[in-house]
Amino acid sequence: MLEHGGGLRAAAARYGIPPGDWLDLSTGINPNGWSPPAVPPRVWQRLPESGDGLESAAAAYYGAAELLAVAGSQAAIQVLPLLRGRARIGVLHPSYAEHAHAWRRAGHRVDLLDAAELADAADRLDVLVLANPNNPTGLGFSIESLLDWRRRLAERNGWLVVDEAFVDATPAASVSGHAGLPGLVILRSLGKFFGLAGARVGFVLAQAALLEPLQERLGPWAVAGPSRWAATRALADRVWQARARLELSGASQRLAELLQRHELPAAAGTALFRWVPATRARFWRDALARRGILVRRFDEPSGLRFGLPGTEADWRRLEGALTAIRAERPSGA
Fold it and tell me: Does residue 198 sit in the same domain as residue 60?
């Protein structure tokens, strides 16, 4: 399995620090996410079923009439490659590694593309896969560009797959309002912005002709009843959503300024994380980990992804650790 953020137990074992003593900034999950109320006992006792309000709440939130609830967008990432015959796939790189992994595992030819190559690649590929905004670099693509690539791919029965796991804090950047166009496949998740990663709830927005075979592959009861119940209410909570967008925007800017003060300038990011290109990424990751702070290190390109601290104590802890590391770091680190 590929490495992901959130490997707290492994880090605890490696560095000899109990799991409860860590500040986990490795995932990009909202540290102050939506808090669900207690789930009624009847929800635990019944099989999940449609018509419970989840799909209508999601349709209103995303502005899309045709969608399918899945067990986190990861479930769709793994199954989408099974819905096409052997094809030529272009995947933005660097990006969420599960995309390229899933298409390769299904026997497709996968080309890893940097952002500058995407526009030309749309004329020669069967499927183009990207994240908007991108994870981990935070790079964003205009709606106009995405729709142009979608049109060119669809002319040859191709797909544009857009992973919008981190777009909820900036909904104007989403193409979900164009869901249903031929060849457009949009992946959404409640794990990041809503902070409901453990619920495993996501959605695929696409034409019914694609959603039907996807649902067949996933089988019945793809999303657990309690997760459906909580997600329905989170999607409908407009007051919390508006407040969270303001708070996350401010926290992201605060994080960028903190990193800048400690000579770790963030090249880009989203409302939920900041990306720091760093040639000595391993040094910084290990130095922070020895102080019980977990960040995500990437090798290609070399860099660090910092999620948001959740409390004032967490902010002070991060700043104190960065100050100490700068004072003791070797030359060139």
Answer: yes
Domain span including residue 222: 41-236
Looking at the structure, tell me whether residues 225 and 84 fall in a common domain.
Answer: yes
CA 39, distance to chain mean position in Å, is 26
Whether 62 and 174 share a structural domain: yes
Single-letter amino acid, residue 40: P
Tokens linked to 328? 């003791």
Half-sphere exposure of 12 (CA within 13 A, CB side): 11
Q: What is the Cα–Cα distance from 24 to 21, expressed in whole angstroms?
A: 10
Final residue of a domain: which of 201, 221, 236?
236
Domain total of the chain: 2
pLDDT in tens, 105-119: 999 999 999 999 999
DSSP state of 159: E
Residue 121 half-sphere exposure toward CB, CA atoms < 13 A:
23
CATH number of the domain to which 89 belongs: 3.40.640.10
Contact between 191 and 178 (Cβ < 8 Å): no
- Residue by residue, DSSP assigns 121-151 as HTTT-SEEEEESS-TTT-----HHHHHHHHH
- Determine, yes or no, domain membership for 266: yes
138: alpha, beta or left? (left if phi > 0; alpha if psi -120 to 50): left
230 plus 248 within the same structural domain: no
| Statement: the pTM of the whole predicted model exceeds 0.90 | yes
DSSP annotation of 52: S
Q: Please report the pLDDT score of residue 331 as a whole number.
A: 63
29 backbone dihedrals φ, ψ, rounded to 5°? -85, 140
Distant-in-sequence, close-in-space partners of 215: CB < 8 Å, separation ≥ 6: 68, 222
Q: What is the pLDDT of residue 300?
A: 81
Cα 76 from Cα 201, distance rounded (Å): 11
Measured CA to CA in angstroms, residue 148 lies from 91, 95, 153 at distances of 17, 21, 9
Phi, psi dihedral angles at 256 (to 5 degrees)? -60, -40
